[in-house]
Amino acid sequence: MSSKIYDVIVVGAGLSGLQTAYNVQQAGLSCIVLEARNRVGGKTWSVPLANGKGTVDIGAAWTNDTNQSHIYALTQKFGIQLLQQNTDGNCIFQDKDGETHTFPYGTSPKFTEANVTDLERIRDMIHDLSVEYGSRTGSTEDYDQMSLEQFVIAKGGSQKTIEMIRIWSRVMLGVEATELSAQYFIEYNGKGGGLKTLRSDQKGGGQYLRFRKGTQSIALNLATLLRPKSVHLSQPVTSITDTPSLVTVTTSIGLTFKSKKIILSIPTPLYQDITFSPPLSGDKLTVTTSTTLGYYSKIILCYNSPWWTSLPSGLNCCGLVISYQTPACVLRDTSMAIDGQYSLTCFITGQPGVEWSKLPQHERRSQILSQVYRLFAATQQTTEQKDEVKELVYHPVEVFEQEWTKEEFSKGAPCPVMGPGVLSSVGSKLAEKVGNMFFVGTETSDVWAGYMEGAVRSGVRGAREVVESLGGGRSVAKL
């Protein structure tokens, strides 16, 4: 048991928690961080390849240098190198019946003209509504009582459009379009500048830049700025007792820490894993029990060369694949050519991911390899070319697999979401303090919620709130 009474305890050493702790300490207050895992970074996790050729991000992976200003400032502060996402070449689309075709990057799949027009109409409608929300100039019309899929149907979306929206819901949030509030989806996009911005790989887009040494480099660098022995790893918090003058925190190994204030920097649904005294109640309890985390997994296939950029037939693919088949709904090129690291990341999300997760590991990987082969072999003309693709696909030098839903201290990714009716009921209570407890995390951010940018911004906000509650301290440090 620690006899010291700290000014602030932060629970969670992800980006939001570390940014909070840094700003609190810069304000002259004492602060420690309790982290359940044996590492810092939360859902940023960068793993080196066994052959020494670079790293892969099995968690968050992208940023930009335009409107994600806090993350970009940190990359500049720490000298972190950023490289552009590869968009050179063709994309691949696979329909429900397995029919596969390529299409130029930046265009829509080769649906019929009517289906393309409808898809772009619905896309633009959601984008415009999200931009209006983001600029606070939108109408008072609210779509929180219907799911995202019901919204698309109500707006006359075709079956092809509905199927594409299902892919967006899965890959962006890990849930089905039937489980997600339409208004939540609109506002989620609005906080990042609109649907087109979040889906974009161009400058200012959600997938524009990647980290040469991995996104976890931000957390690792932030942790070094804290005072020595500030971060306590492998300390899952099991209980929090909040009295008017003191907060007492107990971890799973029986250690006890005391502070004047506490900041929770863990996903909202995970509050249920902590015993609170007094218990959470009212709207805060509803927020905790009504937000959910989607099923989200990555399998990263690493190769000796980026063979998809120069297929046997001569076709150049940029690595972007959209599939209506299972298990993977989207593939991306996540190579770092400068380090000789060449990889395809397969996103297995939503309900198809849940079903896939029930299989033993060897079968999960077998299904992924089989799907990747079918996707790229379908672009080839001859049996010899298809056989060559098979040889390439089935010989990765390394395979990484991360099921975030099975990770004890995440239980899903990328961030908590809200089903129909929740946002309008208690959405405003996400960041609301309770007693001496303050709450941060990417889902609480008004800007780029669900992203690293949102996490850091929430940390800045949480530090400001707790410092002010303690009488101000020194002025909170800027990035």
Automatic annotation (TrEMBL):
<keyword id="KW-0285">Flavoprotein</keyword>
<dbReference type="InterPro" id="IPR036188">
    <property type="entry name" value="FAD/NAD-bd_sf"/>
</dbReference>
<comment type="similarity">
    <text>Belongs to the flavin monoamine oxidase family.</text>
</comment>
<feature type="domain" description="Amine oxidase">
    <location>
        <begin position="15"/>
        <end position="466"/>
    </location>
</feature>
<dbReference type="GO" id="GO:0097621">
    <property type="term" value="F:monoamine oxidase activity"/>
</dbReference>
<dbReference type="Pfam" id="PF01593">
    <property type="entry name" value="Amino_oxidase"/>
</dbReference>
<dbReference type="InterPro" id="IPR001613">
    <property type="entry name" value="Flavin_amine_oxidase"/>
</dbReference>
<feature type="binding site">
    <location>
        <position position="237"/>
    </location>
    <ligand>
        <name>FAD</name>
    </ligand>
</feature>
<feature type="binding site">
    <location>
        <position position="347"/>
    </location>
    <ligand>
        <name>substrate</name>
    </ligand>
</feature>
<feature type="binding site">
    <location>
        <position position="443"/>
    </location>
    <ligand>
        <name>FAD</name>
    </ligand>
</feature>
<dbReference type="InterPro" id="IPR050703">
    <property type="entry name" value="Flavin_MAO"/>
</dbReference>
<dbReference type="InterPro" id="IPR002937">
    <property type="entry name" value="Amino_oxidase"/>
</dbReference>
<feature type="binding site">
    <location>
        <position position="16"/>
    </location>
    <ligand>
        <name>FAD</name>
    </ligand>
</feature>
<feature type="binding site">
    <location>
        <begin position="35"/>
        <end position="36"/>
    </location>
    <ligand>
        <name>FAD</name>
    </ligand>
</feature>
<keyword id="KW-0560">Oxidoreductase</keyword>
<keyword id="KW-0274">FAD</keyword>
<protein>
    <recommendedName>
        <fullName>Amine oxidase</fullName>
        <ecNumber>1.4.3.-</ecNumber>
    </recommendedName>
</protein>
